[in-house]
Amino acid sequence: MDYILPIPIISAPSGAGKTTIAKGLIGLSLGKYGFSVSNTTRPMRPGEVEGKDYYFSSTLDFKNRVINNQFLEWQEVYNGQFYGTLKSEINRLEKIGVTPVFDVDVIGALDLKKKLGEKAVTIFIEPPSMKVLEKRLRGRKTDSEEQILKRLKKAEEEMEAKPLFDFRVVNKHGKQDDTIARCHRFLLSKVGFKP
User: What local confidence, expressed as pLDDT, does residue 2 receive?
Assistant: First the structure.
């Protein structure tokens, strides 16, 4: 499929709001963008839906998919927790005629950018501060103390990669609509619109 729109690859530390921003961009696209659902081995959280939020699988199933070259990209994001983008997911979005919006970790984002080339743009969603990020992670009440500390340590590492992204924006508390609008303007500018 030849994509007219840029392919957004959105990344951020866990809890910075990348999924909300991705879904907000899809809402503004008038049916032109579709959410690329990632595959993961992490446990399902309350309220999550199989095939909508993630495709959940066992570690063995995930590794078998890796062996069978079924992923466009994949990473062991946390020790023993794998995430990846299935090629079949991209095929699903192509069949319904929409451009994928990726919501992936930092390494996965940079890997996808290499594979997709100039038609893709990377967007880094930055939390206002590490304290705010910690408050958001604790406020979700979905992770243990050990998992929160792992996510915060990983977030510090991921923040170092932000200069490698095409566009960076701070997602301020209560200003998600503004963050979505700024990302949308950036995408429009990539196809010659003057927002």
Answer: 53
